[in-house]
Amino acid sequence: MLVNGEKKDIQDSITLLDYLKNEGYNPERVAVEHNGDIVPKNKYQEELLYQEDTIEIVHFVGGG
Amino acid sequence: MITKEDMKKSLDGRFPIEWYDILNRAEVAIAGLGGLGSHIAVMLARSGIGRLHLVDFDVVDISNLNRQEYDVRHLGIKKTEALTDRLKEINPYVDITSDDIRITPANAAYIFSGYPIVCEAFDKAEEKAMLISALLSECRDTVIVSGNGMAGLGDANGIKTRMAGRRLYICGDESTDIGEGVGLMAPRVSVCAGHQANQVIRIILEKEGIVL
Questions:
Q1: Running DSSP on this structure, what letter comes out for residue A55?
Q2: ipTM
Q3: Shortest alpha-carbon distance between residue B17 and chain A (Å)
Q4: In whole angstroms, what is the distance from residue B143 CA to residue B166 CA?
Q5: What pLDDT, in 10s, does the model give residues B33-67?
Q6: Which residue of A has its CA nearest to B120?
């Protein structure tokens, strides 16, 4: 799978939520685009990822 | 009394006048009126953006004065109201509307639908992620310019603007979080706000085919 432009090996059909947790992301602090479409926050548990997919993860920090 | 014509003439005439006409027709919404949002609003008002929509639920607190566009006379006043007054002092002819409301996943799309550009200027990381996810999935034509990472006193050159998707620009160092020993200071917050305001103006002009 292509993650932020980098090739990564993933377990096929892992949920986005599990992938984020495994990679150390706080799911509450990211916005994710999956194959070009933003994933609504309440869909992370059902969004399935596959090897040929592309995802972009933006990780947010506090301050404003 | 300064007239609308006076204000228009006062803008830097070294730019083509048509650019100001484009900016004057533009509408921008700002989500969060703290260190980022209050400065973005001021810069856009000075730049001649015609219509601003300001959204925040908070009132001005003394702890805001270290980095936000408010002063002691605004203490205890709603930020939407205080900033509207401030902007009118700078440019009486900006059309300003506001919503004194806390933005949630349930109301985000409703509040911002119809605005072609939204500046995300929240303080909390979770709220930034929430707003951006909600608007990108529910407001199909909206472009978002987000502030992400401007805490501390690191090198100001670490703050950058990048395109992070077809309808999302991220401004900031994307790494410096607020926390124990790392707070917010006016300079880096203002640098990030400047990146956001500049990107907003670029989006508006480039959409009209202007090459910058």
A1: E
A2: 0.96
A3: 33
A4: 8
A5: 999 999 999 999 999 999 999 999 999 999 999 99
A6: A64
Put simply, the chain A residues between 18 and 47 with a CB less than 8 A from any chain B CB are 28-33, 36-42
Contact A63 B136 (CB under 8 A): no
Please check whether residue B212 lies inside any domain of the structure. Answer: no
pLDDT digits (tens, 9 = 90+) for A10-51: 999 999 999 999 999 999 999 999 999 999 999 999 999 999
- What CATH architecture applies to the domain A2-59? Roll (3.10)
In this structure, what token pair is assigned to residue B44? 């856009």
CA A55 to CA A37: how far, in whole Å? 9
Nearest to A1 by CA among A51, A39, A35: A51
- CATH number reported for the structural domain that contains residue B45 in this entry: 3.40.50.720
Q: Where are the domains of chain A?
A: 2-59
